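ok posting inputs for the nicotinamide-adenine-dinucleotide job
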Amino acid sequence: MAKRVLVTGGAGFIGSALVAKLNERGDEVHVLDDLSFGRRELADVPDARFHRMDIRDRSAVRGALCTMHPELVLHLAAVHFIPYCNAHPAEAADINIMGTINVLDACEAAGSVKEVFVASTAAVYPISDEAVGEAHEPGPMDIYGVTKLATEKVAAEFQRRTGTPVVVGRFFNAFGPNETNPHLIPEIQRQVLAGQRTLQLGNLDPKRDFIHTADMARAVLALLDAGLPGFEVFNIGRGIEYSVRDVVQAFERQLGEPLHIEVDPARVRKVERMHLLADVSKLKAATGWAPEWSIDEGVATLLREPARP
Ligand SMILES: NC(=O)c1ccc[n+]([C@@H]2O[C@H](COP(=O)([O-])OP(=O)(O)OC[C@H]3O[C@@H](n4cnc5c(N)ncnc54)[C@H](O)[C@@H]3O)[C@@H](O)[C@H]2O)c1
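and the output
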């Protein structure tokens, strides 16, 4: 049956992919976003269901949810580009932690919310050369990971206090259309679409678990449909890791042309983890979910997107 669903951060990269999947199944989707990083046109909802609002504005968020009465709340609004968070730690903490407290407080006040999804991140894990499972001891390496671990704890406390089921999804590295932050794949996409065949990149050897946003969105909805009671944490990754060179090779295969790489010292991160790989067995066991998008299929669609500045 169609549900009234609120997606915070629904004008962003992953949030807009979730809105698209919720629309496909006929839910009544609302989006709450301040458009600080997202774009209005990415959130495919009518104006009456778009709530331009800062999650730090506690009374506005409470008022919006108490009027809307959503059954399901998917909380993705956050600042997450790591260099931005490092440069603005107080703002990152304010949005990611206090903002989450405000959204959860509003869920409680609305009295209609049956289930909550909270977006977390692989950045809560410490460095590991092995695939990390949910039971792995957290150990964030930067302020962003610290704020997201705090977000998880706030969500767990909300669940204990209110009894409302909460699913936390630890997203690994998303890729797909409509990226809003200058991560590796959109940067390669931008350079290639601008006609460059010699790419300027930073560290080449770190490996990441890249998962397409459409697969992420399917995983989130599968978890919510599973009707899990209590508080549960799930990794949401593809379970395969790719180095920067592997990603460049995927672009080469789709372009049918060789690409050369020049290491730009300004882009080389001083502190870098070499591996970040999800163990997704818990997600698969709970939902039967399996990824559908390969890196090559995702890259092929990115090459058809218009070049962004
Ligand atoms: N992209 C990734 O690879 C990745 C990986 C791990 C976790 N995540 C998490 O997934 C979620 C979505 O990330 P994304 O990649 O779509 O990022 P994004 O920046 O595209 O989306 C975040 C959205 O939140 C909105 N927002 C930011 N601050 C806000 C505020 N104060 N009030 C209201 N709205 C605000 C932005 O405008 C944006 O639309 C975030 O919680 C992020 O931490 C993303």
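notes: The pocket of nicotinamide-adenine-dinucleotide is lined by residues 9, 11-15, 33-38, 54-56, 76-80, 95, 99, 119, 121, 171, 173-174, 180-181 (CB under 6 Å). DSSP finds ten helices and 13 strands in the chain.
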